[in-house]
Amino acid sequence: MILVAGSTGLLGSEICRQLTAQQKPVRALVRKTSSPEKVNALRQMGCGLTEGDFKDKTSLLKACKGCDVVISTVSSTLSRQEGDNIQTVDQEGNLNLVSAAKEAGVKQFIFISFRHKNATENPLTEAKRSTEHAISSSGMKYTILQASNFMEIWLSPALGFNYTDHIAQIPGDGNQLISYVSYKDVAAFTVASVDSAAAKNKTLEIGGPEAISPAHVIKEFEEIDKHPFIANYIPVSALQQQADEATDYWQKIFSNLMIFYANGDAIDMKPVLEKIPVKLYSVKDYAKAVLKKEEAVV
Protein backbone atom coordinates (compact mmCIF):
# COMPACT_ATOMS: atom_id res chain seq x y z
CA MET A 1 0.00 0.00 0.00
CA ILE A 2 1.24 3.48 -0.91
CA LEU A 3 0.20 6.49 1.18
CA VAL A 4 0.15 9.82 -0.68
CA ALA A 5 0.20 12.92 1.52
CA GLY A 6 -0.79 16.05 -0.38
CA SER A 7 -3.14 14.00 -2.54
CA THR A 8 -5.58 16.85 -3.24
CA GLY A 9 -2.83 19.16 -4.54
CA LEU A 10 -1.67 19.66 -8.12
CA LEU A 11 1.28 17.27 -7.85
CA GLY A 12 -0.20 14.85 -5.32
CA SER A 13 -3.34 14.20 -7.35
CA GLU A 14 -1.25 13.55 -10.45
CA ILE A 15 0.89 11.06 -8.53
CA CYS A 16 -2.29 9.30 -7.42
CA ARG A 17 -3.54 9.24 -11.01
CA GLN A 18 -0.33 7.73 -12.35
CA LEU A 19 -0.10 5.17 -9.55
CA THR A 20 -3.69 3.97 -9.93
CA ALA A 21 -3.24 3.85 -13.73
CA GLN A 22 -0.52 1.28 -13.02
CA GLN A 23 -2.88 -0.64 -10.73
CA LYS A 24 -0.88 0.31 -7.63
CA PRO A 25 -2.82 0.30 -4.34
CA VAL A 26 -3.08 3.91 -3.14
CA ARG A 27 -4.28 5.40 0.12
CA ALA A 28 -4.86 9.15 -0.21
CA LEU A 29 -4.42 11.27 2.91
CA VAL A 30 -7.14 13.96 3.03
CA ARG A 31 -8.44 16.38 5.63
CA LYS A 32 -11.99 16.81 6.87
CA THR A 33 -11.85 20.24 5.27
CA SER A 34 -10.53 19.05 1.90
CA SER A 35 -12.50 20.02 -1.19
CA PRO A 36 -15.31 17.46 -1.73
CA GLU A 37 -14.74 17.65 -5.49
CA LYS A 38 -11.05 16.78 -5.11
CA VAL A 39 -11.79 13.99 -2.64
CA ASN A 40 -14.39 12.55 -4.98
CA ALA A 41 -11.92 12.70 -7.88
CA LEU A 42 -9.46 10.63 -5.83
CA ARG A 43 -12.20 8.14 -5.00
CA GLN A 44 -13.10 7.81 -8.69
CA MET A 45 -9.45 7.09 -9.50
CA GLY A 46 -9.68 4.10 -7.21
CA CYS A 47 -7.81 5.53 -4.22
CA GLY A 48 -8.65 4.50 -0.71
CA LEU A 49 -9.15 7.50 1.56
CA THR A 50 -7.92 8.19 5.06
CA GLU A 51 -8.47 11.36 7.08
CA GLY A 52 -5.55 12.98 8.82
CA ASP A 53 -3.78 16.25 9.50
CA PHE A 54 -0.08 17.06 9.58
CA LYS A 55 -0.57 18.78 12.93
CA ASP A 56 -2.00 15.57 14.45
CA LYS A 57 0.61 12.80 14.61
CA THR A 58 -1.92 10.25 15.89
CA SER A 59 -3.90 10.61 12.66
CA LEU A 60 -0.68 10.18 10.67
CA LEU A 61 0.18 6.97 12.53
CA LYS A 62 -3.24 5.62 11.61
CA ALA A 63 -2.76 6.68 7.98
CA CYS A 64 0.67 5.01 7.74
CA LYS A 65 -0.43 1.73 9.31
CA GLY A 66 -0.12 -1.11 6.80
CA CYS A 67 1.70 1.02 4.20
CA ASP A 68 4.97 0.00 2.57
CA VAL A 69 5.63 3.38 0.93
CA VAL A 70 4.86 6.95 1.98
CA ILE A 71 5.01 9.83 -0.51
CA SER A 72 4.82 13.44 0.66
CA THR A 73 4.26 16.41 -1.63
CA VAL A 74 2.88 18.56 1.17
CA SER A 75 3.71 22.27 1.36
CA SER A 76 1.80 25.30 2.56
CA THR A 77 3.24 27.61 -0.11
CA LEU A 78 0.51 27.21 -2.74
CA SER A 79 -2.48 25.89 -0.83
CA ARG A 80 -3.20 26.29 2.86
CA GLN A 81 -5.96 26.44 5.41
CA GLU A 82 -6.26 28.19 8.75
CA GLY A 83 -3.29 27.38 10.98
CA ASP A 84 -1.12 26.26 8.04
CA ASN A 85 2.29 27.86 7.60
CA ILE A 86 5.89 26.85 6.93
CA GLN A 87 6.52 26.00 10.59
CA THR A 88 3.37 23.93 11.23
CA VAL A 89 3.18 22.16 7.86
CA ASP A 90 6.45 22.18 5.90
CA GLN A 91 8.61 21.62 8.95
CA GLU A 92 6.77 20.18 11.95
CA GLY A 93 4.13 18.48 9.79
CA ASN A 94 6.54 16.70 7.49
CA LEU A 95 8.70 15.72 10.49
CA ASN A 96 5.56 14.28 12.12
CA LEU A 97 4.92 12.21 9.00
CA VAL A 98 8.51 10.93 8.86
CA SER A 99 8.31 9.91 12.52
CA ALA A 100 4.90 8.27 12.05
CA ALA A 101 6.09 6.37 8.98
CA LYS A 102 9.13 5.03 10.80
CA GLU A 103 7.02 4.03 13.82
CA ALA A 104 4.48 2.28 11.57
CA GLY A 105 7.19 0.21 9.87
CA VAL A 106 7.06 1.91 6.47
CA LYS A 107 9.83 0.62 4.21
CA GLN A 108 10.31 3.56 1.82
CA PHE A 109 9.76 7.30 2.11
CA ILE A 110 9.64 9.51 -1.01
CA PHE A 111 9.78 13.25 -0.45
CA ILE A 112 9.24 15.89 -3.11
CA SER A 113 11.41 18.82 -2.14
CA PHE A 114 12.76 21.75 -4.12
CA ARG A 115 16.14 22.94 -5.27
CA HIS A 116 17.42 24.83 -2.25
CA LYS A 117 21.17 24.40 -2.71
CA ASN A 118 21.57 27.99 -3.90
CA ALA A 119 18.42 29.39 -2.32
CA THR A 120 18.45 32.18 0.23
CA GLU A 121 18.10 31.22 3.88
CA ASN A 122 14.46 31.45 4.91
CA PRO A 123 11.93 29.33 6.84
CA LEU A 124 10.97 27.30 3.74
CA THR A 125 14.58 26.40 2.92
CA GLU A 126 15.21 25.44 6.53
CA ALA A 127 12.05 23.32 6.64
CA LYS A 128 12.96 21.38 3.49
CA ARG A 129 16.52 20.84 4.67
CA SER A 130 15.49 19.57 8.10
CA THR A 131 12.90 17.22 6.59
CA GLU A 132 15.44 15.81 4.15
CA HIS A 133 17.88 15.21 6.99
CA ALA A 134 15.21 13.45 9.06
CA ILE A 135 14.32 11.19 6.13
CA SER A 136 17.90 10.29 5.21
CA SER A 137 18.75 9.44 8.83
CA SER A 138 15.49 7.57 9.57
CA GLY A 139 16.68 4.11 8.59
CA MET A 140 13.92 3.80 5.98
CA LYS A 141 14.81 3.51 2.32
CA TYR A 142 14.32 6.95 0.86
CA THR A 143 14.20 9.00 -2.30
CA ILE A 144 14.33 12.79 -2.21
CA LEU A 145 13.36 14.58 -5.41
CA GLN A 146 14.63 18.14 -5.51
CA ALA A 147 12.50 19.62 -8.27
CA SER A 148 13.26 22.80 -10.19
CA ASN A 149 10.67 25.45 -11.05
CA PHE A 150 7.32 24.02 -12.17
CA MET A 151 6.45 25.52 -15.55
CA GLU A 152 2.73 25.25 -14.82
CA ILE A 153 3.25 27.52 -11.79
CA TRP A 154 6.00 29.95 -12.75
CA LEU A 155 4.84 30.34 -16.36
CA SER A 156 1.25 31.09 -15.42
CA PRO A 157 -0.85 34.24 -14.90
CA ALA A 158 -0.87 33.52 -11.15
CA LEU A 159 2.83 34.44 -10.96
CA GLY A 160 2.81 37.24 -13.49
CA PHE A 161 3.34 35.30 -16.73
CA ASN A 162 0.11 36.29 -18.43
CA TYR A 163 0.31 34.53 -21.79
CA THR A 164 -3.31 35.48 -22.62
CA ASP A 165 -2.62 39.22 -22.39
CA HIS A 166 0.99 38.80 -23.56
CA ILE A 167 2.46 40.49 -20.49
CA ALA A 168 5.14 38.99 -18.26
CA GLN A 169 6.60 40.08 -14.94
CA ILE A 170 10.07 38.49 -14.81
CA PRO A 171 12.14 38.30 -11.62
CA GLY A 172 15.72 39.25 -12.50
CA ASP A 173 17.18 40.19 -15.88
CA GLY A 174 15.65 37.19 -17.68
CA ASN A 175 18.98 35.81 -18.87
CA GLN A 176 19.70 33.10 -16.29
CA LEU A 177 19.08 29.50 -17.34
CA ILE A 178 16.32 27.52 -15.63
CA SER A 179 15.44 23.84 -16.04
CA TYR A 180 11.67 24.34 -16.00
CA VAL A 181 9.95 21.05 -15.20
CA SER A 182 6.36 19.88 -15.56
CA TYR A 183 4.63 18.67 -12.42
CA LYS A 184 3.52 15.66 -14.48
CA ASP A 185 7.14 14.69 -15.02
CA VAL A 186 7.91 15.12 -11.32
CA ALA A 187 4.98 12.77 -10.69
CA ALA A 188 6.44 10.30 -13.19
CA PHE A 189 9.81 10.32 -11.41
CA THR A 190 8.01 9.84 -8.10
CA VAL A 191 6.07 6.84 -9.35
CA ALA A 192 9.18 5.36 -10.97
CA SER A 193 11.04 5.72 -7.66
CA VAL A 194 8.71 3.31 -5.85
CA ASP A 195 10.76 0.17 -5.11
CA SER A 196 13.44 1.34 -7.55
CA ALA A 197 17.01 0.22 -6.92
CA ALA A 198 18.24 3.21 -8.93
CA ALA A 199 16.41 5.60 -6.62
CA LYS A 200 17.20 3.83 -3.33
CA ASN A 201 18.70 6.19 -0.74
CA LYS A 202 19.23 8.88 -3.36
CA THR A 203 18.66 12.62 -3.60
CA LEU A 204 17.81 13.30 -7.24
CA GLU A 205 17.82 16.73 -8.88
CA ILE A 206 14.84 16.94 -11.22
CA GLY A 207 14.40 19.41 -14.07
CA GLY A 208 13.07 19.56 -17.60
CA PRO A 209 14.67 18.49 -20.89
CA GLU A 210 16.58 21.75 -21.35
CA ALA A 211 17.75 24.76 -19.40
CA ILE A 212 16.47 27.97 -20.97
CA SER A 213 16.21 31.57 -19.84
CA PRO A 214 12.93 33.40 -19.11
CA ALA A 215 13.76 35.70 -22.03
CA HIS A 216 13.97 32.66 -24.31
CA VAL A 217 10.68 31.37 -22.90
CA ILE A 218 9.03 34.60 -24.03
CA LYS A 219 10.46 34.10 -27.52
CA GLU A 220 9.02 30.57 -27.59
CA PHE A 221 5.56 31.91 -26.73
CA GLU A 222 5.86 34.74 -29.27
CA GLU A 223 6.84 32.36 -32.06
CA ILE A 224 3.91 30.05 -31.33
CA ASP A 225 1.27 32.72 -30.75
CA LYS A 226 2.60 35.21 -33.34
CA HIS A 227 2.09 38.01 -30.84
CA PRO A 228 4.76 40.12 -29.08
CA PHE A 229 5.04 40.14 -25.29
CA ILE A 230 5.57 43.10 -23.02
CA ALA A 231 8.16 41.99 -20.46
CA ASN A 232 8.83 43.83 -17.22
CA TYR A 233 12.04 42.77 -15.52
CA ILE A 234 12.35 43.12 -11.74
CA PRO A 235 15.95 43.69 -10.57
CA VAL A 236 17.28 41.29 -7.96
CA SER A 237 18.22 44.30 -5.82
CA ALA A 238 14.54 45.32 -5.74
CA LEU A 239 13.50 41.79 -4.81
CA GLN A 240 16.12 41.70 -2.06
CA GLN A 241 14.92 45.03 -0.69
CA GLN A 242 11.36 43.72 -0.76
CA ALA A 243 12.43 40.62 1.17
CA ASP A 244 14.43 42.63 3.72
CA GLU A 245 11.62 45.11 4.35
CA ALA A 246 8.70 42.68 4.25
CA THR A 247 6.58 42.67 7.37
CA ASP A 248 4.18 40.07 5.99
CA TYR A 249 5.34 36.47 6.53
CA TRP A 250 4.27 35.16 3.13
CA GLN A 251 5.55 38.18 1.24
CA LYS A 252 9.00 37.53 2.66
CA ILE A 253 8.86 33.86 1.63
CA PHE A 254 7.77 34.63 -1.93
CA SER A 255 10.28 37.44 -2.34
CA ASN A 256 13.02 34.94 -1.50
CA LEU A 257 11.58 32.40 -3.94
CA MET A 258 11.63 35.03 -6.66
CA ILE A 259 15.29 35.77 -5.91
CA PHE A 260 16.03 32.07 -6.33
CA TYR A 261 14.15 32.09 -9.65
CA ALA A 262 15.99 35.23 -10.81
CA ASN A 263 19.37 33.63 -10.15
CA GLY A 264 18.57 30.65 -12.39
CA ASP A 265 18.62 26.89 -11.87
CA ALA A 266 20.15 24.81 -14.64
CA ILE A 267 20.27 21.02 -14.24
CA ASP A 268 22.00 18.38 -16.36
CA MET A 269 19.34 15.68 -16.50
CA LYS A 270 21.41 13.06 -18.35
CA PRO A 271 22.69 11.23 -15.24
CA VAL A 272 19.19 10.89 -13.77
CA LEU A 273 17.57 9.92 -17.07
CA GLU A 274 20.13 7.15 -17.56
CA LYS A 275 18.92 5.59 -14.28
CA ILE A 276 15.23 6.54 -14.46
CA PRO A 277 14.10 7.15 -18.05
CA VAL A 278 11.18 9.58 -18.24
CA LYS A 279 9.98 11.32 -21.40
CA LEU A 280 10.23 14.97 -20.45
CA TYR A 281 7.71 17.67 -21.30
CA SER A 282 9.29 20.86 -22.67
CA VAL A 283 8.41 24.52 -22.27
CA LYS A 284 7.47 24.53 -25.96
CA ASP A 285 5.05 21.65 -25.33
CA TYR A 286 3.55 23.61 -22.45
CA ALA A 287 3.26 26.79 -24.53
CA LYS A 288 1.47 24.95 -27.33
CA ALA A 289 -0.94 23.43 -24.83
CA VAL A 290 -1.87 26.61 -22.97
CA LEU A 291 -2.06 28.65 -26.15
CA LYS A 292 -4.16 25.83 -27.63
CA LYS A 293 -2.18 25.89 -30.85
CA GLU A 294 -2.01 22.11 -30.90
CA GLU A 295 -2.57 19.27 -28.47
CA ALA A 296 0.58 18.57 -26.50
CA VAL A 297 1.44 14.99 -25.66
CA VAL A 298 2.50 14.37 -22.07
Question: Which SSEs are present, and which pair or pack?
Answer:
Blueprint lengths: L1 E4 L4 H12 L4 E5 L5 H10 L2 E4 L5 H8 L4 E4 L13 H18 L4 E7 L8 H14 L4 E7 L3 H4 L6 E2 L4 E5 L11 H11 L8 E5 L7 H12 L4 E5 L1 H10 L3 H14 L7 H6 L7 H8 L8
Keyphrases for this structure?
single chain; 298 residues; Rossmann fold; UDP-galactose 4-epimerase, domain 1; 2 domains; 7-stranded parallel β-sheet; 3-stranded mixed β-sheet
Question: Can you describe this structure?
Answer:
By secondary structure, the protein is of the alpha/beta class. Helices cover 43% and strands 16% of the residues. The chain is built from twelve helices and ten strands. It has a seven-stranded parallel beta sheet with strand order 3-2-1-4-5-6-9, with helices on both faces. Strands 7-8-10 form a three-stranded mixed beta sheet. The longest helix has 18 residues, at 86-103. It is globular and about 55 Å long. The chain starts with a strand and ends in an 8-residue tail after the last helix.
